[in-house]
Amino acid sequence: MSARILFAVAGRVLTQLRHDHRTAAMLLVLPCLVLTLLWWMFDDRGFGFDNLGPPLLALIPFIVMFLVTSVTTLRERSSGTLERLLAMPTGKLDLLGGYAIAFGLVAAVQSALAVFLSVWVLGLDIAGPVWMLTVVAVADAVLGTALGLFVSAFARTEFQAVQFMPAVVIPQILLCGLFIERALMPPVLEAVSNVLPLSYAVDAMTTVATTSSPGLGGVDGSVWGDLAVVAGFAVVSLALGAATLRRRTA
């Protein structure tokens, strides 16, 4: 892996995003709009936003980054850009690592905006520190980026990339604990939930929002373990994506 090539790829992706206003709006504005809409719906019904808000802060950046990353990578492949880059002295890990850095920076901005909106505008009540809520949201978005890059290696068109969402994303949404606590699920479903990364992302976000600890930075120790799992899945996904990425477009 070359640091020069890695950051050159990241710079190229960021430049493209800066000129692609629709994608930039989807990455930065859409999560805030969805959070506001859901807050409005539940607040109007008197259910409150405090219970639903933390899991949504984990889910929405994850979903948006998965979709945008997978589709953007396939667009690069279909246009021939990916093949030209790989024909140069650019390793597969350099390429995916550059994409991960670029989208990771966007994810940081996206997550900071979503947390700011939720806490200071929509009135989300949290027990833990706001900075940790942002860290977890960024980790969730990076996980979505890594999984998006991974599945893009198996898709041939943008439509096929979107088709991976029912297989990769929706089961994680159903089993992450959003609809029913994981401990209350049937044993088989609980076991499946325990090996899905989004479950740990939601657990970390919920713990930060509901628990204040005298430990490091006022963060409960279990959050660091959940974040380690999320980060581990992201790294493994990038490594597998680099191993399976085709140099030529079939």
Automatic annotation (TrEMBL):
<feature type="transmembrane region" description="Helical">
    <location>
        <begin position="223"/>
        <end position="245"/>
    </location>
</feature>
<dbReference type="InterPro" id="IPR051449">
    <property type="entry name" value="ABC-2_transporter_component"/>
</dbReference>
<protein>
    <recommendedName>
        <fullName>Transport permease protein</fullName>
    </recommendedName>
</protein>
<dbReference type="Pfam" id="PF01061">
    <property type="entry name" value="ABC2_membrane"/>
</dbReference>
<feature type="transmembrane region" description="Helical">
    <location>
        <begin position="95"/>
        <end position="124"/>
    </location>
</feature>
<keyword id="KW-1133">Transmembrane helix</keyword>
<keyword id="KW-0472">Membrane</keyword>
<dbReference type="InterPro" id="IPR000412">
    <property type="entry name" value="ABC_2_transport"/>
</dbReference>
<keyword id="KW-1003">Cell membrane</keyword>
<dbReference type="InterPro" id="IPR047817">
    <property type="entry name" value="ABC2_TM_bact-type"/>
</dbReference>
<keyword id="KW-0812">Transmembrane</keyword>
<dbReference type="InterPro" id="IPR013525">
    <property type="entry name" value="ABC2_TM"/>
</dbReference>
<keyword id="KW-0813">Transport</keyword>
<feature type="domain" description="ABC transmembrane type-2">
    <location>
        <begin position="15"/>
        <end position="248"/>
    </location>
</feature>
<feature type="transmembrane region" description="Helical">
    <location>
        <begin position="54"/>
        <end position="74"/>
    </location>
</feature>
<feature type="transmembrane region" description="Helical">
    <location>
        <begin position="130"/>
        <end position="154"/>
    </location>
</feature>
<keyword id="KW-0046">Antibiotic resistance</keyword>
<comment type="similarity">
    <text>Belongs to the ABC-2 integral membrane protein family.</text>
</comment>
<feature type="transmembrane region" description="Helical">
    <location>
        <begin position="24"/>
        <end position="42"/>
    </location>
</feature>
<feature type="transmembrane region" description="Helical">
    <location>
        <begin position="161"/>
        <end position="180"/>
    </location>
</feature>
